[in-house]
Sequence to fold (522 residues):
Amino acid sequence: MGALLLLGIPTLVIFAFFLSPEDDNMKDAVRLLYIHVPMAIFAYVAVIMTGIGSVFYLWKKSRWWDTVAHASAEIGLIFCGLVLVTGSIWGRPTWNTWWEWGDVRLVTTLVLFLMLLGYLALRQVPANPEIRAKRASIVGVITAINIPIINRSVEWWENNTLHQKSSLTDGKLENLTLFTLFLGLMLTGVCYLWLMTHRFRVGWLQTEIENEGALGVLQERIAESTASSAETITKEDGEEEVI
Amino acid sequence: MSHLGYLLAGWIIAVGILTIYAWRLIQKGKALSSQVPEHRQRWMSSSQDT
Amino acid sequence: MIMRETMMLRDAWLITRKDLRIEIRSRIITNQIAPYTLLILVLFGFALDADTETLRDTGPGLFWVSILLVAILAIQRAVDIENSDSAQDRLLLSPISSLSLFIGKAIGLFLQLIVLEILMMIAMVTLFDSSIDNFLLIIVSAIIATIGIASTGTLYGVLATGLGVRETLLPILLLPVLAPVVVGATRAFGDGFGRVNADGWAWVGLLSVVAVLYTVLGMLAYGQLLEEA
Fold:
């Protein structure tokens, strides 16, 4: 997968920059969209995965799902942050502003970013792993549920937005543009999976080490008490009770 | 190409940050895996964990 | 079925009364939090170097930001009450269900916040020279927004406890989740104060959705959290 990515990125760049045509309204700035849009999509995917992982953890108490939730949240954070950054950079030449408070999509994405920060902050707190996992899952579920609902309802209630209406569904995209976008989408997807695999591994190893630590202490204690009770037997025959 | 500055900035930041993150993930993976004994490293399905 | 519901509500009311009684005796709200509320408004007044026009325009926003900040304090207070002297354990041992506990605490928080909001409203009308256009809108939106804040706050209060970092963790967890409440409430207030050309009642709709959603989520998740907190 890694190799695929390494090949894919230059290809995408070539397509994005050289082969695909200019857009009418925004000229070349459209070329930013080839990463901005796929990352936005996969940021949402990542958050949904966190939500799913959290739900499954709450249901099955499975460490596997919990690790998935955690990994996906971190990747989601990065994607989300990049969406905001690339979006802002795109917005500057196009709308002549770095940020626009009135736009729903912008603000909800920012809020999502903050929620992910909160989730990860909770994750970092040193605590009993099960408690932490359970609480994080609840936060994870709330985060995941939040975004589509709030997004939809605010859009419904306030209809003005500077944000680009979805050209994809309009069907007005030219062939090459569409293809490049598609390519970007594929690549981002592969990127997400690749990152997930590695992040999951890191997360899994981390919990292993934590558990190892806890187990190690437990084993030491057991060893201590067996050693001392063995001493007790040898020292005082039947005078003291063996624990 | 119009807006080249913005374009480059955007792309470089995006690809750059992702690359750095990926790099650090791999590094961390290697560092951690040296600490954990081999048999505990594999995971297959959710039914297997404690 | 009806019996159980009534019992549950009665239990919840017991909890609310307990919390309020503790509050009345300790007077933390009146002595510390209410002045803090006022102080925030005054600080904004200074900072914005205001002419009255600006203050009237920004009033709704300042109002709700202040309430959120103050709510954090109130939530921490509410959770601390349970944590002292293992009151929590005794509560769990009693036959009161965690659902009643949640509702009770949420209502208690709600009432405290409403009192603070009334105070702040009075301050705003005097200090910022705001005039209320649509009383009903203001009252309804405030009530619904506060329901949302109270239930989310009760849940997140417990969520952030026991880990030793609550003071710093609670804001970053709670405030983004309450962002829609801020948006909705501010718009509604803007309309209610006659400053903004928004449809306040539509925003009340949003606030209601949020309030219902968070209350339900709170009710579901609260019990789970209490078991091991």
In short: Chains C and B do not touch (no CB pair under 8 Å).
